[in-house]
Design brief:
The N and C termini lie far apart (42 Å). This protein has a 5-stranded parallel β-sheet, sandwiched between helices. The chain is of the alpha/beta class and 216 residues long. 49% of the residues lie in helices and 11% in strands. Helix 3 links the parallel strand 3 and strand 4. It has 2 domains: 127 residues, 3-Layer(aba) Sandwich (Rossmann fold), CATH 3.40.50; 63 residues, Arc Repressor Mutant, subunit A (Orthogonal Bundle).
Length: 216
């Protein structure tokens, strides 16, 4: 029998999630708590949970810190992040910390159920709101924690420098100034980087960097 744990501090959202998750399969058991303390208490009592759905905006210990802790202590239990915060930086951190999937709260119930079923089947699912089909293809089955060098993807040293600065949130102008390049040259490098990674935007590139463990 499948056992799920939901960690969500808003009661109405938590109750709605429980009702939605009952549709995953017949006989599924769902345990719901409001914070990390409640989750720890449940996990200590019942280790054999098949999956955790974790909100990031928790009181006290934040969701990313919880994710990191749970992945360290319960490595066999996949954690799916469900969050209203779906910016590239948050997604990147969550995937680096070991999330099996990142689902924005704006997604439909059907999409959430699909993602959870895929994770229960052993897959790593990237947030399709931020990914193109190409990104999903290259990143979906990459083992969490795997590390790669930019050169493994055919990126030059200069392209790796540009990608690294982009990952730090630098604008094209900032990158040009820091590397002594023109903005036009930076754009040329970015076009080449996007082509290599199979993406169409900075956001998609950052998700691939996180999922493929590219060291910058």
């Amino acid at each position: 029998m499948t056992k799920l744990i939901v960690v969500e501090d808003h009661a109405l959202v938590r109750e709605g999630l429980v009702q939605t998750l009952r549709q995953i399969e017949e006989g599924v058991e769902i345990f719901a708590v409001a914070d990390s303390m409640g989750a720890n208490s449940l996990l200590e009592q019942e280790y054999q949970f098949d999956l955790m759905v974790l909100d990031l905006g928790l009181p006290g210990l934040d969701g990313l810190s919880c994710l990191r802790t749970f992945r360290q202590q319960y490595a066999a239990m996949p954690v799916v992040i469900l969050s209203a915060y779906d910016d590239a930086n948050t997604v990147s951190k969550a995937m680096k910390f070991g999330a099996a999937a990142f689902v924005p709260k704006t997604c439909s119930s059907d999409r959430l159920l699909t993602v959870l079923r895929e994770v229960l089947a052993g897959e790593i699912v990237a947030p399709d709101a931020l990914l193109s089909a190409n990104v999903s293809d290259v990143s979906r089955h990459k083992p969490v924690g795997a590390q790669s060098k930019p050169s493994d993807f055919g990126l030059s040293k200069r392209q790796a420098e540009v990608l690294g600065l982009m990952a730090r949130g630098k604008s094209n102008r900032d990158i040009a100034t820091l590397l002594g390049l023109t903005e036009g040259t930076v754009k040329i490098h970015l076009t080449a980087i996007f082509k290599v990674l199979g993406v169409a935007s900075r956001t998609q590139a950052m998700v691939v960097v996180a999922r493929r463990g590219i060291r910058l």
